[in-house]
Amino acid sequence: MVAAQRKLVGRFALISLLAVSGCFYTETVNQRPSLDIEQEEPEPGIPVYREGDVTLRAVSHDPENHFVWFQWRVYACSDQTDCDQAPFDEQSSNSPFKIHVPKSRVDSPEAVQAIHVWLEGQDEYGANARPAQQLWITVDDHPPTIELGQFSAYDFVVTAPVQVIAKVDDPDDGPSVPQVSWKVYTPSNQPAYTIVDDPSVVLDKPPLDDFYEYGKLLWPSGTGKYTVEVTATDGIAPPTVQTIEVNIVPDRAPCLRTMTPLVAVAPAALPMSEPTLFQVLVVSDDLDPYPTANDAHGLLDTPRFTWSVLAPGGPRQVLSGVTGNSVALNPASYQPGDIVELRVEIADRNLTPITCGDGNATCSVIADNGCLQRQTWRVEVR
User: Fold this and answer.
1) What is the pTM of this model?
2) Largest Cα–Cα distance in the chain?
3) Rounded CA gap, 346 and 304, in Å?
4) Facing residues of 165 across strands?
5) What secondary structure does DSSP assign to 188-204, as a single string?
6) Which residues have C-beta within 8 Å of that of residue 164, sequence separation ≥ 6?
7) What is the pLDDT along the chain (382 residues), one digit of tens a residue?
8) How far apart are alpha carbons 279 and 293 in whole angstroms?
9) Chain centroid offset of residue 277 CA
10) Which of 27, 67, 177, 363 has its CA 20 to 30 A from that of 321?
């Protein structure tokens, strides 16, 4: 009996020893990742428009720092209870997800009022994120956009027209034409003006263009800054207002630009041994240039040329009947060695007098000495 008890005790001792010193292995549980959606562009609080873009970024939190793959799906909706059955965009990517918001839903022609974004994720060991993340983004009607420009064929001089162009786009409401209105704010002295439709600009939107073009002609009767205000509305979104400043300047003096032959600087003189034609080839001016350019409004004229000669022993004589841009000198009319001065002076329609003394070979009636209204050739007869 005692021996049997000893054997039983020994067996329990062995079992106890194995229980204490033995190794047990259990399989590690792969924990699920969690997800967040961050809106990168536009920032939250900034409107999202139809035909606009939204950029989202997925953020994962995995307890074991496992890599997580993302699956995006996005649906077009009228509200949170009425969405398309199928997503209009989906993507498996770990890059930021850029969504282009459509104008209308897939299942119906209704305008998109919201988009419903789903984000799912799975780590590298197959654990799915729970729950999937969702994001509702309200979609607004895009107001018209306005791009303004100005052009003047007359250097923005007073009494001459300025072309003001408005390029108006409505990204999500085409092909309807936005309603556009114009307003002009005059300089402080409130000169008169007119603003009329520009017949050279036709309201048109060919299929490849993405804007409507409107044109006006502003005819100012005084100088200063005019502000042109353009308002466009699609009848849904708030109106869009843009302004442009048009700076109207006085009629400036004409400038001698190109002449032939070259002018010798005193005391040097240009030798002349045969008949020579002296010419003004180019005069720049707002309204009286030479040569006259194409003029859609019939405002341009030519400058007034006055030619004079100072021969040895005599006073300066204006060449009567010579009103064009050129004069010919014949050395046979003078003695060899004579120094003859040939002078040209120009004026525009304002006939601003040249007040420099007769002894000045050049003259500028404005502060810009690079803009001359008088030039004198000094010629030595050979």
Assistant:
1) 0.74
2) 167
3) 5
4) 149, 215
5) TT---EEEEE-TT----
6) 148, 149, 150, 215, 216, 217, 218, 228, 244, 246
7) 434 444 433 433 433 433 444 555 555 788 999 999 999 999 999 999 998 999 999 999 999 999 999 999 999 999 999 999 999 999 998 999 999 999 999 998 889 999 999 999 999 999 999 889 999 999 999 899 999 999 999 999 999 999 999 999 888 876 567 889 999 999 999 999 999 999 888 766 655 566 888 999 999 999 999 999 999 998 888 899 999 999 999 999 999 999 999 998 888 999 999 999 999 999 999 999 999 988 989 999 999 999 999 999 989 999 999 999 999 999 999 999 999 999 999 999 999 999 999 999 999 999 888 999 999 999 999 9
8) 19
9) 48
10) 363
Which residue bears the tokens 């079992």? 15
- Exposure b/e, 186-223, CB count within 10 A at least 16 = b: bbeeeeebebeebeebeeeeeeeeebbbbbbbbebebb
Give pairs for 258-263: CB < 8 Å, separation 24+: 258/282, 259/344, 259/375, 261/377, 263/375, 263/376, 263/377, 263/378
Token pair recorded at residue 259 = 């002449």
Range list of H helices, the chain: 2-21
